[in-house]
Specification:
By secondary structure, the protein is mainly β. It has a domain of 83 residues: Cupredoxins -  blue copper proteins (Immunoglobulin-like). 12% of the residues lie in helices and 41% in strands. It has a five-stranded mixed sheet with strand order 5-11-10-7-8, with no helix packed on it. It is rod-shaped and about 100 Å long.
Length: 141
């Protein structure tokens, strides 16, 4: 009889430990060991993920037919928008290799580029007439 009572007690304890909770899904543990809840409590909204800040638009200044400072480095991931502007104190045409985009630039005329990164690789941005490189565009997979 004592063995039967002990067996029933073990079954009850195991049931209490493994039974599903009425409070919703159990918290989960992340790789860092922190406990997080997968659902909001009743009547509570899930927090909305914060949008990642949009990187600032690259600006390239051309002075005396050369990029001011150094050749600009522009890096984006595939599918993102590529955005940059070019100002110049001399009239020129900007050429984005690979994407075959052209824009005129000169005193009082800024060239603005905004296009999707739908090609992957490293591309040169140059002053087309003088073939001077002003930027290196890197589109990551």
């Amino acid at each position: 009889m004592a063995l039967l009572i002990a067996a029933v007690a073990v079954v009850v304890v195991v049931f209490l430990l493994v039974r599903p909770s009425d409070e919703g899904p159990a918290p989960t543990t992340s790789a860092g060991g922190a406990t997080t809840s997968t659902e909001a409590s009743p009547g509570e909204e899930k927090p909305k993920p914060k949008p990642e800040p949009k990187p600032s638009i690259a600006r390239i200044d051309v002075v005396d037919g050369e990029p001011k400072g150094a050749v600009a480095k522009i890096e984006v991931d595939s599918g993102e928008a590529i955005e940059f502007t070019v100002t110049s104190d001399v009239p020129e045409e900007i050429h984005v290799h690979g994407f075959d985009l052209y824009e005129d630039v000169g005193p009082g005329q800024k060239a603005a580029f905004d296009f999707p990164a739908d090609l992957e690789g490293i591309f040169e941005v140059e002053l087309h007439g003088s073939a001077v490189q002003i930027a290196e565009l890197r589109v990551n997979p």
